[in-house]
Design a protein that fits this description.
Keywords: Aminoacyl-tRNA synthetase, ATP-binding, Cytoplasm, Ligase, Magnesium, Metal-binding, Nucleotide-binding, Protein biosynthesis. This protein is about 45% helix and about 20% strand. It is built from 13 helices and nine strands. Helix 2 packs antiparallel against helix 4 and helix 6 packs across helix 12 (about 310-320). It starts with a helix and ends in a 6-residue tail after the last helix. It binds phenylalanine. Phenylalanine binds near residues 248 and 282.
């Protein structure tokens, strides 16, 4: 019986075939069962020896079937891999044939790089909606109605005057506090919208990368450590930095972290408005009212937040002298980044 089974097994290729074979030999109405059933009329002695032997065979068959299942599964996986492989040399083939290969947008490139830096420091990456309500964009961030700080951010309102296009990624701070229990740390990159007059350093749609860390005994020293780490990882060289007081209702104290304009080397140009410095990284210690609005126990926890200006960073990084290039859709601009 065993050798007959083995011959049959070696002919099996697919799982359904294997299951049929299993039924034929060790199923309820299978060959092994019928041998065991036939022992009904046998002598005690026969029943003992034949029964034991048949059971050994049954176990051997089951074991062989299990092994075959594993083998078939491996083959299935290999077949899938064979079918779904990707040709990573495809870009070269496209180029050799003078075709137009795709590339990443510089904002995407820089955003991913920064995400990696923060992931390596244990931060989570969060997202949030572009269309927001007043609460998440203003109120929860300690910017009540009629507060002059609302004028700092010219807002695109919806007709209902309750919804708006988020003016900053600080909305992600609020959403992060709502969904997380301290301690936590996360960054949230994304597009933001302001009804601004456009010039070399202002766009109506631009990008920020928000960051927040909440825990016990967080200090300005922690904030400065992470900001320094971020800048040194991005620029990989010494750059001139200055920290000055900055006002944002959601932080206290608040800072403006500027870097020396890399486009004009601090001499003054249209990007830095002739001052030689670029406001890159506003930040500060999170205001207790903001933590409270986010449901955080302020007797136990505090934190910091920052809002990196991604477009300006991209501009400094790749020496782009006008922010309007970023959304221009001009292929002559985008194609320069293919090699990165
Ligand atoms: N949300 C602020 C802005 O867009 C930047 C900021 C974020 C400042 C976090 C401090 C802390 O202008």
């Amino acid at each position: 019986l065993m050798s007959e089974f083995q011959t049959a097994l070696s002919a099996v290729i697919t799982k359904p075939e294997l299951f049929d074979l299993k039924a034929e030999y060790v199923g309820k109405k299978g060959k092994v069962s019928s041998i065991l059933k036939s022992l009904k009329d046998a002598t005690n002695e026969e029943r003992k020896t034949v029964g034991a032997k048949t059971n050994t065979i049954k176990e051997a068959i089951l074991k062989a079937i299990d092994e075959k299942v594993a083998l078939i599964e491996i083959e299935e996986i290999n077949a899938k891999l064979e079918k779904n492989w990707q040709d990573i040399t495809l870009n070269d083939i496209i180029k050799e044939n003078g075709l137009n290969a795709a590339g990443y947008h510089p904002v995407t490139l820089v955003q991913r790089e920064i995400e990696d830096i923060f992931i390596s420091m244990g931060f989570e990456i969060l997202d949030g909606p572009h269309i927001e309500d007043e609460f998440h964009n203003f109120e929860a961030l300690n910017i009540p109605k009629n507060h002059p700080a609302r004028d700092m951010q010219d807002t695109f309102w919806f007709k209902d005057m309750e919804h708006l296009l988020r003016t900053h990624t600080s909305t992600i701070q609020v959403r992060g506090m709502e969904s997380h229990k301290p301690p936590f740390k996360f960054v949230g990159p994304g597009k933001v919208f302001r009804c601004e007059t456009m010039d070399a350093s202002h766009e109506m749609v631009f990008h920020q990368l928000e960051g927040m860390m909440v825990g016990e005994n967080i200090s300005t020293a922690n904030l400065i450590f992470f900001m320094k780490k971020l800048l040194s990882e991005i620029f990989k060289s010494d750059i001139n930095v200055r920290l000055r007081p900055g006002f944002f209702p959601f932080v206290e104290p608040g800072f403006e972290l500027d870097i020396e304009c890399l486009i004009c080397k601090g001499k003054g140009c249209s990007v830095c408005k002739q001052v030689g410095w670029v406001e890159l990284l506003p930040c500060g210690m999170t205001h207790p009212k903001v933590l409270e609005a986010g449901g955080i126990d302020t007797t136990k926890y505090n934190g910091f937040a920052f809002g990196l200006g991604l477009d300006r960073l991209v501009m400094m990084r790749y020496m782009i002298d006008d922010i309007r290039h970023i959304h221009s859709g001009d292929l002559r601009f985008s194609e320069q980044f293919k090699e990165y």
